[in-house]
Prior knowledge:
By secondary structure, this protein is α/β, with parallel strands linked by helices. The protein has eleven helices and ten strands. The strands form two sheets. Strands 3, 4, 5, 6, 7, 8, 9 and 10 form an eight-stranded mixed β-sheet that branches. A two-stranded antiparallel sheet has the order 1-2.
Amino acid sequence: xxxxxxxxxxxxxxxxxxxxxxxxxxxxxxxxxxxxxxxxxxxxxxxxxxxxxxxxxxxxxxxxxxxxxxxxxxxxxxxxxxxxxxxxxxxxxxxxxxxxxxxxxxxxxxxxxxxxxxxxxxxxxxxxxxxxxxxxxxxxxxxxxxxxxxxxxxxxxxxxxxxxxxxxxxxxxxxxxxxxxxxxxxxxxxxxxxxxxxxxxxxxxxxxxxxxxxxxxxxxxxxxxxxxxxxxxxxxxxxxxxxxxxxxxxxxxxxxxxxxxxxxxxxxxxxxxxxxxxxxxxxxxxxxxxxxxxxxxxxxx
Length: 301
């Protein structure tokens, strides 16, 4: 025996109303279709559930015994379905994003602000972690997406570029110097400048050091700091010059420092998002990626 929920709901409609025509109207189906469901149910159970007359339909003894059981089953099913649906809605309205610390502190706050203004019903959760942990969180389902620069292709992950930044020089500004715009200078100007940097193990610093090496500055001893904010403050205070990606421009704008994109060569750094392969992309995720892609060009000007 394999009673379907359609059969049980048809049985309940007829039992509660006592008329096949009106029950069919309430169930939004034809009377013939409703009658077929009830007959199939009776055939599977091996007994009549209703006494049918021309004017009224009454439950048989078997129907009366079955009624509370079916009511309980359908009610429990509806409750569980509603609960699971609410959980699914909540999950779809919460977006968990994992990103490397420099991205989390200098790029995402502005993107989060824009997204919350346009999507106030979506809750954003940010986890800052190193590159390896970001990838593991996505693979393990602890984060819906990861954001950063140096993700390599990996099993179980989909990787897609969402933006591109360039390396720039951040230098002390003179007292009357206009710092509202970003210019451009060749890497060669760094040969004679006092340099500050991120720790040598930082992937961004490794790219920077590779290009500094071409002008004879790759092995220079220099003060290092973990955060762009510290670097920018040290530059503003006259302790030296730093190189960093243009996504730190917004932080630079809060300080009196000069910013110039480094050219000859102009070094691009692709910004990636990673997601778990095969995972369904929610509407919230799609909307966030669109907001991110639209915001990135503005953050690098």
